[in-house]
Amino acid sequence: MGISPVDTHAKEWVPRRRQDGRRFVVTGANRGIGYATAAGLAALGAQVVLAGHEGSDAFQAAIERIELETGCARDQLAFMPLDLRSLDSVRQFARAWAQRPRDEQQLHGLINNAGIAGAPGTSADGFELCFQINYLSMFLLTRLLLRFMSGSAAEPARIVCVSSSAHLFTLGIPTDEPYLRRPGGGFFSLRYGESKLCVNAFVRELARRLRAEPLPVEVVAVHPGSTASGFWHSFPPWAQRCIARVAQDPSRAARTSLFAATEPRVESGGYYADCAPAAPSFWLASADRAALLWRKSCAWSGVSPNKLL
Predict the structure, then answer these.
(1) Is 192 annotated as catalytic?
(2) Residue 107 DSSP SS3
(3) Catalytic pick from 35, 135, 179, 192?
């Protein structure tokens, strides 16, 4: 049994529901909120695959820290490389997952945590970096791993997509391809909020399609809140110090992700903040716009717009 990395005597919600025998993938899990999420799941007994692009040394160090901090068994934790800057890397991750032993392919939870605040330039696939990393690669990863999701009516598998309250401050769901292929304005430009609005639109559309199938999988979006983490590493040092003074620590920020991943009282397609339902952007009222984003995302990433599996 692992030791919870958060204060279980706190009055607010803390993770207590055991996850023994369940397997999760957490992206961007070697530091920040992703690390705290992985540690929280491991403490609850889950098998956790830490995914990211920063190299095996960084992730092995993270695994050792989680083992030391939680007391979990070493064989609960594993690392798989994944670079969301590349759709080919996402496809390779899915192929590698399919090559695992059959009893290790079952996936009970996917935590799409990795993201960036913004960066100038475009990806190898030709998309603005914030859009690709925060949304399009996450979209493809989720679609490719859906066939491995193992749930039941009593205990559905769970997909958690980390969004942001920044999605509230945009000019609508972006679907214009020339615009999405132009470099963005850097850190915390409008592109960041737009990418997170796409995340929320995807969550709603996927939830609708999962119910229609029906498949025993639920999907939710979460806002972790302002957090003192590596998310700000490209900001000037003085700005990072200011943020650290007012922002929460990653273990607290991870609670909403853990809530969404483990609590039974979660509504598929919903948006959560502070471990409770929150009001999403009014732009998400447009089902037609979300459906258009779905179709274009399928075309850009090379998956079927109709068949989920």
Answers:
(1) yes
(2) strand
(3) 192
